[in-house]
């Protein structure tokens, strides 16, 4: 079915597969930042965003990391410690996310330095009016603009002088490496040679659980979002070693034939004890849960592995939507919810 290009083009109305393939170009986009901050005064960074806009902070916590504490806040309220030594980053593609706008007001009241990442809306208006540091995202499909957003965040952190090294060489190398990987997941590569199509076929009709170690957690969370939004299937995410302290036991009871599919993103760069936990957990839970679909993440560097895993998840999510007979792009229930909330 997934080798029927006519079917794919008919259901993938906004060409999400084509957009997913072109994402690597986002890594080398150079933002012209507007506004200013005072790097010498910054002692911590708070990044506020919801949904996919929150992912860049998760990625940055794994790679490249920050010289000062970097906290991701998903919600209306900010931590009590936020003050004039804080760089507050508000990120929303639409620029109208109500949680982020609420947090921005609090950041202003606390005297924080402020940066904004957006494609428009109220956030752009406020940033331009008040002279906040602004990275304006190019027009694109919001759910496939992660790497634009990630690049914008890195440039803001560079401006804040909280990064140790120049990130550009590794981003350029990762972009070149990922172009080769992505070519294998394209719709014109038949299922027998296409891992993304094969994985999607194993996920049909299942509740999906995605596991990883801490270093791959950002990519695992991206998989969850893809399964939810593109395929409209329920998915959860957790990470080692935490899941061994509670969720491990949750698999041990009846029914043994659980309607789940388990994805494990396994990286050679995780802590050796984390890698051991994958092996021991699989042995102890044999027969108590579905055999996990183990994905050995590819790439020479942590950055390459993170992005390889995330982009594979994009393709799997779209293929799963097509198998479900759906256009992967629209989010009608989210639109209805926002209207009802308003």
Quick rundown:
Helix content is 42%, strand content 14%. It is an alpha/beta fold and 342 residues long.
Q: What's the tally of helices? A: 13
Mean pLDDT, all residues: 97
Helix and strand string, N-terminal first? HHEHEEHEHEHHHEHEHEHEHH
Q: What structural class should be given to the helix and strand makeup? A: alpha/beta
Strand order of the biggest β-sheet: 2-1-3-4-5
Radius of gyration: 20 Å
The fold-level CATH name of the largest domain is Rossmann fold
Overall geometry: globular
Proportion of helical residues: 40-55%
What's the β-strand tally? 9
Topology of this structure?
Elements: H1 5-11, H2 16-21, E1 44-48, H3 55-62, E2 70-73, E3 86-92, H4 98-109, E4 113-118, H5 121-130, E5 133-136, H6 146-159, H7 168-183, H8 195-203, E6 207-212, H9 217-229, E7 235-239, H10 247-250, E8 260-266, H11 272-284, E9 293-296, H12 302-323, H13 332-341
Parallel strand pairs: 1-2, 1-3, 3-4, 4-5, 6-7, 6-8, 8-9
Verbal overview:
This protein has 342 residues and is of the alpha/beta class. The chain folds into two domains: 22-170, Rossmann fold (3-Layer(aba) Sandwich), CATH 3.40.50; 194-323, 3-Layer(aba) Sandwich (Rossmann fold). It is 42% helix and 14% strand. It has 13 helices and nine strands. The chain has helices spanning 5-11, 16-21, 55-62, 98-109, 121-130, 146-159, 168-183, 195-203, 217-229, 247-250, 272-284, 302-323, 332-341; strands at 44-48, 70-73, 86-92, 113-118, 133-136, 207-212, 235-239, 260-266, 293-296. The strands form two sheets. It has a five-stranded parallel beta sheet, sandwiched between helices. A four-stranded parallel beta sheet has the order 7-6-8-9, with helices on one face. The longest helix is centred in the C-terminal third of the chain and has 22 residues, at 302-323. The protein is globular, with a radius of gyration of 20 Å. It starts with a helix and ends with a helix. The model has no long low-confidence stretch (mean pLDDT 97).
